[in-house]
Amino acid sequence: MDIVIRSAVAFIILWLITRAVGPSTLGELSSFELLLFITMGDLVQQGVTQGDYSVAGAVMAVGTMALFTVGLSYANMRWPKLGKIVQGTPVVILHGGVPDLKAMRHERLGIDDLMGAARGQGFRNCSEIDMAVLEPNGKISFFAMDQQSSSGAPEEPEAG
């Protein structure tokens, strides 16, 4: 039963760390950040199992983490306001071709990161972009200046 309690505590701590790190860091990890997260996972495993290398101990630890993950997903679906707290909300980081430096600083996103993502989507400079949104998963959505749709939702295809 100790493993279940330690797994629950580790889950909460890992969730807090990922929220503190922010979506801009989690979107694309550098080699160092990837190694850092792997090392943290190993350290958490040692704290959770505390020398219990049995299959039952591993199943209990993984099962607890999986149960918390499924429970959190269900809670996010059931209570949308909780989802905004747990997962975060999209942030507009560029509007009308002008980067919002305050929002970018708050999200710890550099202009080089924004421009690199924009080039990856085929944009040459900010003036071609109507809006850029940093999504909760760390990806950046871009909307071109010439798009007529004012909503962010994809348009439905016309019946043919």
TrEMBL record:
The keyword Glycosyltransferase does not apply. The keyword Ion transport does not apply. GO terms for cellular component: plasma membrane. Keywords: Cell membrane, Membrane, Transmembrane, Transmembrane helix. The chain crosses the membrane at residues 53-75. InterPro entries: DUF421, UPF0702_alpha/beta_dom_sf. Gene3D superfamilies: bsu07140 like domains. Residues 78-147 form the YetF C-terminal domain. Its main location: membrane. It is a multi-pass membrane protein. It is found in: Cell membrane. PANTHER family: UPF0702 TRANSMEMBRANE PROTEIN YCAP. Belongs to the UPF0702 family. This is DUF421 domain-containing protein.
